Amino acid sequence: MSAIAQTGQISGLISDKNSSESVPFATIALYQKNFNVPLQGTVSDGNGKFLMKGIDYGKYQLVISFIGYVSDTIS
Asked: Which of 41, 60, 68, 72 is 20 to 30 A from 32 (CA-CA)?
């Protein structure tokens, strides 16, 4: 018997809410709901884009942070 594990990915563009300008080198951390340790993390590139691969199906929270900004959490 064999099983095929399917994984997905999360990608996005980090931008300033007021100016719509991209935010390069922001930190993005992926957490399982109600856990304190991130499962995966990355940094947005010079254009504010990021990509996380190999993510199992489930419910997560993305925490986005950058110096000078208030951190944002997306469920």
From this structure: 68
CA distances from 34 to 31, 40, 41, 57, 60 (A): 8, 15, 17, 16, 9
Q: What is the pLDDT of residue 63?
A: 94
Is position 1 within any domain? no
Question: Model pTM?
Answer: 0.83
- Amino acid of residue 42: T
Cα(56)–Cα(43) distance, rounded to whole angstroms?
20
Q: How many domains does the chain have?
A: 1
Domain that holds residue 30: 7-74
User: Is residue 2 a part of any domain in this protein?
Assistant: no
Tens-digit pLDDT profile for residues 32-47: 877 778 889 999 999 9
How far apart CA 29 and CA 43 sit, in angstroms, is 9
